[in-house]
């Protein structure tokens, strides 16, 4: 018996990994957060699988299902939105499983930040623009952000930044970012990326609040900021340059013209 923590992806059913889908199809018990994971994924479950929406269950109630699965010697597919390693609230479940002597495995998934970049048609790293990506969020009742990791502390780096669950605190987020990012820095709001009701708003840091109503971007909204959001001619990576040599390819030799 094993519990599989599966990254279900950001929303679109076909963004789950092949490994995650295979495990989902075989599991006799499936736990999922109905508020975050698309119910359409359940169509891939076996007909005799027990599916449990954990949105209204506390941690002890969820662990009780794991214990019941162990008693029946059946595997559990635990679906988490995005990738389980990012804001997945999986660590406390794993600790409980370890205390109970139960084995588990983590199956990575597509995070909403990478899905958002894809929806925007951008790369979040570009030569001599930004080679770092900050993944962060604002403090909330369920989980506080350490003071040393506040948005205002990351902003001086002016790297590409992806701020999860930012919609409910949009004014404060913009104020903190404006301490260091120029007001003409590109920003994007992405709500429920890859879902049928996905919404995207592109703007600049200085204009954003005058163009949107914060209450229209609640809950699962991601704010992205950085110069990489504006695709424009710039320094290209040397990786595929004809005159660049690396361990798998020699640089092309340019012939000198004579005469």
Short description:
The chain is of the alpha/beta class and 259 residues long. The chain contains 7 helices and 10 strands. It starts with a strand and ends in a 34-residue tail after the last strand.
Describe this structure in words.
This protein is an alpha/beta fold. The chain has 2 domains: 2-107, Tetrapyrrole methylase, N-terminal domain (Cobalt-precorrin-4 Transmethylase, domain 1, 3-Layer(aba) Sandwich), CATH 3.40.1010; 112-225, 2-Layer Sandwich (Methyltransferase, Cobalt-precorrin-4 Transmethylase, Domain 2). It is built from 7 helices and 10 strands. The protein has helices at 18-26, 59-72, 91-99, 112-120, 151-154, 170-177, 208-211, and strands spanning 3-7, 29-32, 50-53, 76-80, 104-107, 133-137, 160-164, 186-191, 199-204, 221-225. The strands form 2 sheets. The chain has a 5-stranded parallel beta sheet, sandwiched between helices. A hairpin with a 7-residue loop joins strand 8 and strand 9 (199-204). It is globular, with a radius of gyration of 22 Å. It starts with a strand and ends in a 34-residue tail after the last strand. The mean pLDDT is 91.
